[in-house]
Every structure is written in structure tokens, then in C-alpha cells.
Design goal:
By secondary structure, this protein is α/β, with parallel strands linked by helices. It is 46% helix and 15% strand. The site of pyridoxal-5'-phosphate has 14 residues, from helix 5.
Length: 375
């Protein structure tokens, strides 16, 4: 057996073990009504936005040709970032090719070996990996009491607190006012990942930090373009000096080809659209509230959701897989979310309320979930 054969046999065994634990992942094409994706407003398939983006590509080409610090920085990057900074209500913004690369670029550039980052236990894998890439000390908190205890520990370096404004797997809305108050009282710097809030909260979709007027108390916000905005990419918005620092030190920015015209043109088109879509966003939140209320009355554990992400916690991965399969048979594209994405024993259906869903579809979804889980 060659080394490569041995490796492949080992990988096969690992996949088999994952399968027998109910944790195997396989790519599956969309099938049925979308109650799963993060395309909350249906922008990803919007024909007007596609036309505006195509027009932008016709004018600016398909690629940037190089990293930004080489010859890849073009006037439409500068304009796009100025627009995104204004949208986020911050001084400056810097584009990245994804939220993943924004988080993994940010943390090693920001936090040094002398520093400590206090990170919420539900934070996304890209924050966790960004922190791992940094040399900073890390401590995880689950709630405000735990955060307070960590903030009270005397430390020699800087202290950062990082949270998501809307948690991606629970749908909980973080109490940003409390986080900022505690951080300020203990001289800590706050960073907020707005991945699941951008487009859905605050003025024209600027996010929850802008909605709550906390810009002065938050160093920077991280916005993804691939969720409610339906496009892709991400940007970090904050003070110009921070953005200049990231231009110099965020490795995923420095050593990566500049983001594509389609991404910048698409984001600009969506930002313009959001200025007209406030009623659609309000309607979406009302639909989400209806689903949460209905499932709560039916006795479900929704993990504290207060947003369009409505998780139905079922426990064992096999149970989540079985119920998701029944809902797919009913015509709803539901996927089971299992460890390590969520903690052991909390496998769930991660239902996402989206603007294109009709009231009839939403009612039928609730009815089928109740039927399949409660019998
Ligand atoms: C909170 C959070 N941050 C960052 C990301 C990564 O964003 P992207 O999909 O653009 O890489 C995600 C994606 O799910 C997320 O939920």
C-alpha cells in the first residue's frame, strides 16, 4: 500500500465514522421551497439586480487582475468602499472576498500576543479561526455574567470583546447595549460581526450597531454581502486609521486578488435597492415573528431566536435529519444543522424566514413542522 493509498483508506474510514454518527455532510442541490438559505430578501435571484450587476461588469470587466496593493486597486473599488462606509455609517470600509477572509484577516492584524479576546461561545467559525491565527489569548463567554467575570480579570494587554449582532445558528439578537456598557466600564474594545443583521436592521439595512446608535462604542463592524444582500464578499467598516492598518496587515487582504467587479457592482446595486425596500424588510420581520410565536405556542425550543433565523432544536442529529427529510418530502428545502456547527445534543432544523415566502407557504411550513415533530 502506498502512502497515498493509506491516506485515502484512512479518509474513507473517517467518513464512514461520520456517517454512522449521523454527522456526514453531502452536497445537495436545492429542491423545494427555500426556507434554509440566508438570501432573506430574495435578492440573489433578483433579475433587476442581476441586470444592474451585468451592466457594471460590461463597463468594468470580469476581474481586477491583481491584489489591491499591486495593480488591482481600481477606481470602482474606491467608490464601492466609500459607498459601503456611508451605508454602514462609518468613516471607512475595506472589502474582502468573503466574511471568512474578513474575519481571518482582521484578528491576526488586530490582536497581538499581549492581548486577550473575549469571544462569545456562539461565534462563527471564521471568528474562531481568525482568533486562532492571531497570537492573542482567548477566552470564551456564554452569557453576560461570564463576560463580566472575564472583564474583571486584571490583564496587562488590550482586551477585545467580539460578538455577532444576530447569532447565525440560534437567531438570538445579542444585547449590544449591555455588551458595550460592560466593555466600556472595563476599558475593552468591541468588534461586532453583523453578518446576519446587514440588510435587515437599522437605517437602510446598515445593521444593529447603527440601529442602536452604538458606532462610537464599537471599533468596527463586519458585514457580509452574501446573506441578506444576496451577493457575496464582505467588508469591515470603522475608523480610517483601522482600515489603513488592515490594508497593511490583514494578510487575507494583502495577499489575495482584489474583489471582482461583479461583487462591487452587485453590492452597490443592492445598497441602492435597500433604500426602497424598507416595507419589504418590515414585512419580513413580521412574518418571522409570526413563525416564532406559532412554534413557541406549539411548545418548541427555538433557542432564544428573535430574528428571521428560527431554529427548531431537536437534540440528536438523526432526529434532525429525519424531520428535515420529511419536510423535504413536503416540498420545503430544510437542512439539518448538526455538531460541530452547533453544540452536541442541539441538532436542529435551521428555518429561515425569507421575504419571497407567501403567507400560505409559511402557514403550511409551521403546520408540517408541528405535525412531524409533535406527531
Ligand atoms: C456570523 C458570520 N460571520 C461570517 C461568516 C462568513 O461569511 P461568508 O459566508 O461571506 O464567508 C458567516 C457565514 O455564515 C457568519 O454567519
Amino acid at each position: 500500500m502506498t502512502a497515498q493509498d493509506r491516506l485515502l483508506a484512512d479518509l474513507t474510514d473517517r467518513l464512514k465514522r461520520r456517517n454512522s454518527d449521523g454527522l456526514l455532510r453531502m452536497l445537495a442541490l436545492p429542491a423545494g421551497i427555500d426556507v434554509t438559505s440566508n438570501d432573506y430578501l430574495g435578492y440573489a435571484q433578483d433579475s433587476e439586480l442581476a441586470l444592474e450587476t451585468a451592466d457594471f461588469v460590461r463597463r468594468h470587466g470580469v476581474g481586477a487582475g491583481a491584489a489591491r496593493l499591486l495593480r488591482g486597486h481600481l477606481d470602482w473599488h474606491a467608490q464601492g468602499e466609500a459607498d459601503l462606509a456611508a451605508f454602514s455609517q462609518r468613516e471607512a470600509a475595506l472589502l474582502f472576498s468573503s466574511g471568512w477572509s474578513a474575519n481571518t484577516g482582521l484578528w491576526p492584524a488586530l490582536a497581538t500576543a499581549d492581548d486577550c479576546v473575549l469571544s462569545h461561545s456562539a461565534n462563527h467559525a471564521s471568528i474562531i479561526d481568525g482568533l486562532r491565527l492571531s497570537k492573542a489569548h482567548r477566552a470564551v463567554f456564554h452569557d453576560e455574567d461570564a463576560l463580566l467575570a472575564l472583564l474583571q480579570v486584571p490583564r496587562s494587554g488590550r482586551v477585545f470583546v467580539v460578538v455577532e449582532s444576530v447569532q447565525s445558528m440560534s437567531g438570538q439578537c445579542t444585547d449590544l447595549v449591555a455588551i458595550c456598557r460592560m466593555a466600556s466600564a472595563h476599558n475593552a474594545v468591541v468588534v461586532v460581526d453583523e453578518a446576519h443583521a446587514t440588510g435587515l436592521y437599522g437605517p437602510d439595512g446598515a445593521g444593529r450597531v447603527a440601529e442602536l446608535g452604538l458606532q462610537d462604542q464599537v471599533l468596527c463592524t463586519l458585514h457580509t454581502g452574501g446573506k441578506a444582500l444576496g451577493v457575496g464578499g464582505a467588508w469591515i467598516a470603522g475608523p480610517q486609521v483601522l482600515i489603513s492598518h488592515l490594508v497593511n496587515h490583514a494578510r487575507s487582504f494583502v495577499y489575495s486578488t482584489a474583489v471582482l467587479p461583479a461583487l462591487v457592482g452587485g453590492l452597490q446595486a443592492v445598497v441602492r435597492r435597500l433604500q426602497k425596500d424598507a416595507a419589504a424588510v418590515a414585512d419580513l420581520h413580521a412574518k418571522a415573528e409570526w413563525l416564532r410565536t406559532t412554534l413557541t405556542i406549539a411548545g418548541f425550543d427555538l433557542d432564544g431566536s428573535a430574528s428571521c433565523i428560527v431554529p427548531v432544536v431537536l437534540g440528536a442529529p438523526e432526529r434532525a435529519l429525519a424531520v428535515a427529510a420529511l419536510l423535504r418530502a413536503d416540498g420545503f428545502d430544510v437542512r439539518a444543522v448538526r455538531p460541530p456547527t452547533v453544540p452536541q445534543g442541539t441538532s436542529r432544523l435551521r428555518l429561515v424566514v425569507r421575504a419571497p415566502l407567501t403567507h400560505d407557504q409559511l402557514h403550511r411550513l409551521a403546520e408540517r413542522v408541528i405535525l412531524h415533530v409533535k406527531g
